[in-house]
Every structure is written in structure tokens, then in C-alpha cells.
Amino acid sequence: MSGGLEVTVNARHLAGQRTGIEVYMEQLLAALAGTGLVHITAVSWAPLGLDLPNLREVVPTLRPDFPPGALGGLRATLWKHWFDQWRCLRTVAPPGRLLYHGLDGFLPYSLRRHDRCVATVHDLGWRVHPELYPRKLRVMYGVLFPWVTKRADRLVAVSRHTADDLIRLAGVSASRIEVVHHGLDPAFDLPVDASAAPVDAVSGAPVDAASAAPAGSPYLLAVGGISPRKNTRRLMQAFTRWRARGGHRAAYTLRISGTSLDPDFQRDGAPLPDGVSLLGYVDKAELRRQYAGAAAFVYPSIYEGFGLPIVEAMACGTPVVTSRTASAPEVAGGAAILVDPFDLESIESGLEHVTRPDEAERLRALGRNRARHFRWSAAASQTLEIYRQLTR
Which class does domain 5-183+376-391 fall in? Predict the structure, then answer.
């Protein structure tokens, strides 16, 4: 394309594992590039290999290797902030006005007065539930976030709930906020017709229906590792109580994907309860198989700015249990069982209901229909309109 919109982003997050914010970056950049209506300059500290049309990668400097230990960790943190706040724009800023999108929720201090900028706010959990976040993370947001709310010409909130938090907690005017929901990665969009021959959503190759998910006893799936914000400890307690009631419940196991480990859990050295296993990091193809094979997806998170795993599980035809707090009800849209994440009995009741065959079938149908509402093409169209408004 020639002419048109131009936007610069800091995409260095995509140099590592892609979960959460990285999935948002990857999918939105692909959808934006696919429109043919915007030139994207993606700055990083390592080659990303995105290979997208209308996108150029710029690596102004490579991230050095830092030694392990406290000193190495401190140097890595300082270097990261130097890159994000100053270095990332030095080689790409044009003489004229720059349009910058802070996809990770932050904006560089090196933006010039005449530059225009938008930041995506993923959540304000560090303000709502500070007890769930490490002190250094709370300090970082406390230092950097006021600059974002002051400098941004427009703020993208990933949910109505996040927009309301911005107004209520950060004092941002509603006129500066646009709500743009996440989309669904096509890799998780399984065929609605259960009789249709399944295909691998990543490669497109035929898949034996019997191997579409791991075989064995029925299992429940959770994601996010053992994390205070994901409420994993309380989930394991509720699952243990529910499983101990016997009968069909005793056959179920609980699988938890993700690499986060609650420091308190590590210090305690407590073994996992019977029937609970940690999968560690799983790639997109494996996560899809885990969703598709699960009897239910259980996500009693205490606070989410959006909650993309809810949509992914629904698209895979998996019944969902999630929280009635924060953005989860907005995303679930009446297609999930909602529980009180602070109440063991409520979570346990959710497990009991979601494993009833008639209720599970009802939720599968509702969930698949709900997942269709979330498309990255729609998110890209809304984002492009924001860019147009800021460059007129």
C-alpha cells in the first residue's frame, strides 16, 4: 500500500512466550496488517519474525544477556525500562508527527509534544486488588501509569468494566476512552457441527476425533498456573472438597496450565492435592487440545480486565465456570456458570452443576454462540478508527 495511516508500536514482548498481553499484541497486529490500511513499525530488542504485510520490524539494539542473581535481575530491569522509555523511539521517530500505540499499556517518556498516542489499558487490578500483585509491580505501575493517563490522547479499554475502572479510579474522562474487546484466535474456533470431521485449527490437517484431546479420565482445566489473581489455591481446595464427595466426582482430575507459581506456595513446599497436576507452559496447539478434551473449563479468577481464556474455551465447545466479579460476566454474556471466587462452597457448587450432562450440553451451545461475538477483525476496525481520529 502507499500513503495511508502509519503507527509505531513497541512489540518487544513478542520476543518471549506469548500469553496474555502477548496474545493481544500478536493477534491485533496481524488483524491490523491484514486490512492493508495501515503501515506498522514494530520496534523490538530481538528479531520477531512476524512476517506480516505492511509491517516492518526495527531492532535498534539487541537485548544483552544478564547474569543470574539479584544484581543481574536489577540490571535487566533497568535496561528494560531504558529501552521502553527512551531507546525504542530514537531511531524510528520521523521529523514530523508520530502516531504511537502502547499495546502493553505504557507510553514512552520520549514521546514529543506534537506526537499523538493511544494506550491499551488491560486492567487496573493492581489498584483494585493490590494484595494480589508483587510490590515491585505495584511500584512500577504507580510510577508509570499516571504518565499514561496524562499523556494519552485516547485510551483503549479492553472491556466496559476496565473503562469504568479508568473513570472511577484514575479520573479519566469517558470521552477519552474507547472500549475495544479482544477477538478470538481462529486456532480455537472449532467446528460447531460435532458430526463434522475435525481438523487441526493450526495446520488444517485432519485429526482423529478420538485424539482431538488427551485420552484418560475426565478432567477439568484451569490456566494461569498457581497465582493469587487466578485464585488457584481456592480452586484446588474447592476441587478437593468436591472430589471427596465420591461417586462420579472421584474420577475427575484437575489440570492447570501456565508457569506462574505463587511464591507462598513455593515457600510452603506443599505437595499438590490428589488429582491435581501442573502442565507448565503449553503452546497454542496443545492448549486447544486441552480445552477441547476438558469436561469443563474452570476460571474463578478474582480480577480480570477481559478474560480471553473464557472465549477460547467456549469456542472449543467447553462448558465454562467463571467468576461473577470484574469483567468475567461481561465476557461470558450469560453463557457460563458464575461463582463467587471468594467462596469455596460457591466454586464447589459450580463444579457440581457444570459436570451434569444436561447442563454441560446447554453451556456448550451457549458458549459457542457467545464466542462468535469476538473477532479480531472487529477489534482492528475499531482501532483503525481511533487512529484516523487522532491523525485528522
Answer: alpha beta
